[in-house]
Design goal:
Elements: H1 21-29, H2 43-52, H3 59-72, H4 85-97, H5 101-108, H6 112-115, H7 120-127, H8 129-140, H9 151-162, H10 167-181, H11 188-208, H12 212-226, H13 228-240, H14 247-262, E1 267-272, H15 275-285, E2 294-300, H16 303-316, E3 325-326, E4 339-344, E5 350-357, H17 358-366, H18 395-404, H19 410-422, E6 426-431, E7 436-440, H20 445-453, E8 460-465, E9 468-470, E10 481-486, H21 498-501, H22 505-517, E11 558-561, E12 571-573, E13 585-590, E14 594-599, H23 603-610, E15 615-616, E16 618-621, E17 631-640, H24 645-655, E18 659-665, E19 672-681, H25 687-695, E20 700-705
Parallel strand pairs: 2-5, 6-10, 12-14
Antiparallel strand pairs: 1-2, 3-4, 4-5, 6-7, 8-9, 8-10, 11-16, 13-14, 13-15, 17-19, 17-20, 18-19
Length: 714
């Protein structure tokens, strides 16, 4: 059963009249009344429901109550009262928050399939497919109350169930709230277990859904169970100020007068803080004053009025600019909108102020519950241009649904779920192609790669943020423009260092799965004979793969001179550009009767020509049978800095059968690094293939011929 105990635990903040369980029990046992008449036990629910939905049809609620009451008849709670009081109390909680009729109907029936002989098919036949779906979703969540071992898999099912309709989760939250209110008679260890699950998962879920009313009371109930000493101290602090003049009331009166004089129609209230909020203020400021026990709430009609109020407050009072936040222009991930500021109140005390419209206030209190039925077109009269926010698939919930399918085991899922829910803020990053990516605050470029490309994020080799190249570990900020640079090699994988940069479950799970299926090679397999270690200046040992003999058409060639009188001159290949066939080349006579050969586009050619040096015409010719020749070439690899890049590039070069004569690495600049290699090729015609192999190394975004002298060798 979902209702486990009976004793009511008092809470400081009462959001509405709680149902009288004794009176309700007598009404439930007294029968349903005349045919067609609303049962007495349902009057509280009907009154609360009509306050939000004046034209609601209560007949389906009447039928649902009668069906639930007859189904649960004979069942009692641990207090001895009728079990029907539990679904009635849960339904009242939702009705006070403004839930629509279908949600309330499902709430009345949410325990019938779990705790009675009623089947889902019967629920569907009597109340429709939508109510059946909601009851089925809530039924799948009931195992959460039965032992810690079942929790990870239960919440996995919860995500699947609520992925289609968050109203399932809303009913579950109201169900948990009522059970937490009636937790007092249970064993302390069981109270603590249920309170910890509520703290770790359900309270963050209430925050994500924007249901602040439920979240606040759940926080206080958990606080009292898990931290009784701090709870008692906070309660004493609140009671100590109860008989003193409230400085916020005086500040509220001044604010009303200022806004009235400015012609801004507004309602100004003093909004008490709940116990956990007071406790947090005490931890932050060290001492709690009367102004810290609440905040001013200013409600207006239009968005523009919010900024008008803000202007008047900052003009007529001393504002604390550091406390200003604009959640209207940039709403929170849970649809919350409001202006936050703080002003100097009576005696200089800080008075925090919330400014919002009446509609914003409804959403701030009840979150997605205030948005009504997500499938009822046009139900929200306040939505602009006939559109409404669809609460069935918030961005954070979509992310959870994506990675929960990839979580390899329940423990990984559970840990990742708690980490995801611990993120209390979301950012929006603009893609270079015009789209957007929603991410938890603190996410890096690695997280964005997996959010945008899924498993394809493995091939990300770099990123530009606001036009500048950055490391993949760079933390993104709200409003950044992001361009991800992807490798064309779909077989490439992530760097081990990405694990440190991945903050979202989707990225961590994807990276973990890749390394699980691509284990690192055993270093001993390539170590060679015992005692044969590479020297300190040598690159890591690699095994070049076997290569087929080069065909005759690709025999190496040597350089000869066509210039009369210099046919037998010694020839040198310029080190600045290291020409190889079939490069277009030119030569210059140097001292000693030698000829230096440069690539035609080498910058040195223009300098020497300008200086008056005479060109010598040279050309390539085929070998004369004296044996194979070797050709040296200098290549520059432009890449993003990452661990083991030098080793990976050297291995790719060796796998092509090419010898490394020297290698140099310039210091990284803006997360970019240049590797310069002087290589000896047995076949110059193999150069394009070698360059392609180097470009396939993860992190490398360009490989080209050197146009200047090589750096100092390592």
């Amino acid at each position: 059963m979902s209702a486990e105990a009976t004793n009511e635990r008092p809470s400081r903040r009462r959001r509405g009249p709680r149902i009288d369980l004794r009176r309700l029990g007598r009404a439930a046992l007294g029968g349903s009344g005349a045919r067609g008449r609303l049962p007495d036990a349902l009057e509280h629910v009907a009154k609360a429901h009509r306050a939000h939905h004046p034209g609601a049809d209560l007949d389906i609620l009447r039928r649902a109550y009668l069906f639930a009451e007859s189904s649960h008849r004979g069942q009692t709670r641990k207090s001895g009262g009728p079990f029907i009081t539990h679904p009635l109390a849960v339904t009242l909680i939702l009705a006070e928050l403004g839930a629509e009729t279908t949600t309330l109907t499902a709430s009345l029936l949410h325990d019938t399939v779990e705790d009675t002989e009623v089947t889902l098919d019967q629920v569907g036949e009597l109340f429709g497919a939508e109510v059946r779906f909601l009851v089925d979703g809530v039924t799948k969540l009931e195992k959460v109350d039965y032992g810690a071992a079942a929790e990870p898999e239960t919440f996995r099912k919860m995500l699947v169930a609520t992925g289609n309709d968050v109203r399932v989760m809303s009913i579950k939250l109201a169900d948990r709230l009522h059970n937490m209110r009636t937790l007092g008679v249970m064993r302390p260890e069981k109270q603590a277990r249920i309170a910890k699950v509520t703290r770790d998962v359900l309270i963050p879920l209430a925050e994500r859904l924007g249901v602040q009313v439920l979240k606040a009371e759940l926080e206080d109930l958990v606080f009292a169970i898990l931290h009784p000493e701090e709870y008692a101290a906070t309660r004493e602090t609140v009671l100590a100020h109860a008989d003193r003049p409230d400085p916020l009331q005086a500040t509220a009166a001044r604010v009303r007068a200022v806004l009235r004089e400015a012609g801004v129609a507004a309602e100004v209230r003093v909004r008490p803080r709940h116990f956990v909020s007071v406790h947090r203020v005490r931890l932050k400021r060290g001492e709690v004053t009367g102004s810290d026990l609440g905040r001013l709430l200013v409600l207006v009609a239009e968005d523009a009025d919010c900024y008008a109020v803000l202007g008047e407050l900052h003009t007529c009072f001393t504002p604390y600019i550091s406390e200003f936040k604009d959640f209207i222009a940039v709403p929170k991930f849970n649809l919350y909108q409001s202006l936050h500021t703080a002003i100097a109140g009576e005696a200089g005390q800080v008075a925090e102020v919330l400014i919002r419209t009446h509609r914003m206030h409804r959403v701030a209190e009840a979150g997605v519950i205030a948005l009504g039925n997500p499938y009822a077109a046009g139900e929200d009269p306040d939505a602009a241009d006939g559109e409404r926010v669809d609460p069935t698939r918030p961005g954070w919930l979509s992310r959870l649904l994506e990675w929960q399918r990839s979580a390899p085991d329940p423990d990984t899922f559970w840990t990742s779920l708690r980490d995801e829910l611990a993120q209390d803020r979301e950012i929006t990053v603009f893609r270079a192609d015009g789209g957007t990516i929603g991410l938890p605050a603190g996410s890096s470029c690695v997280d964005a790669a997996y959010a945008q490309y899924g498993q394809g994020g493995h091939t990300c080799i770099g990123a530009r943020v606001n036009g500048r190249l950055v490391a993949l570990g760079t933390v993104l900020r709200d409003g950044d423009t992001l361009q991800l640079l992807m490798s064309p090699d779909t077989a490439s994988g992530p760097s081990p260092g990405w694990r440190e940069h991945a903050r979202t479950p989707a990225a961590r799970i994807a990276i973990g799965r890749w390394f699980a299926t691509h284990p690192a090679p055993d270093p001993a397999a390539d170590a060679g004979p015992v005692g044969a270690a590479p020297g300190p200046s040598q690159p890591p040992a690699v095994r070049p793969g076997p290569r087929d003999p080069a065909p005759a058409a690709r025999e190496p060639v040597v350089v000869g001179c066509a210039e009369a009188g210099l046919a037998d001159a010694s020839v040198r290949l310029a080190g600045c550009c290291t020409p190889v066939p079939p490069d277009e080349v030119t030569g210059f006579a140097v001292r000693g009767g030698a000829v230096t050969v440069h690539r035609a586009e080498c910058p040195a050619v223009a300098r020497m020509t300008t200086a008056g040096r005479r060109r010598i015409a040279v050309r390539w010719r085929r070998p004369d049978g004296s044996g194979p020749g070797d050709f040296r070439v200098t290549l520059c690899a432009e890449s993003f800095s990452r661990p083991h890049l030098l080793a990976d590039l050297t291995e790719a070069i060796a796998a092509e059968g090419v010898a490394v004569i020297s290698a140099a690495v310039e210091p990284p600049h803006e997360q970019r690094v240049r590797h310069t290699y002087t290589l000896q090729l047995p076949d110059a015609a193999h150069l394009p293939e070698l360059m392609r192999a180097m470009r396939r190394v993860p992190g490398v975004y360009d490989v080209g011929r050197a146009g200047r002298p090589a750096a100092t060798p390592l």
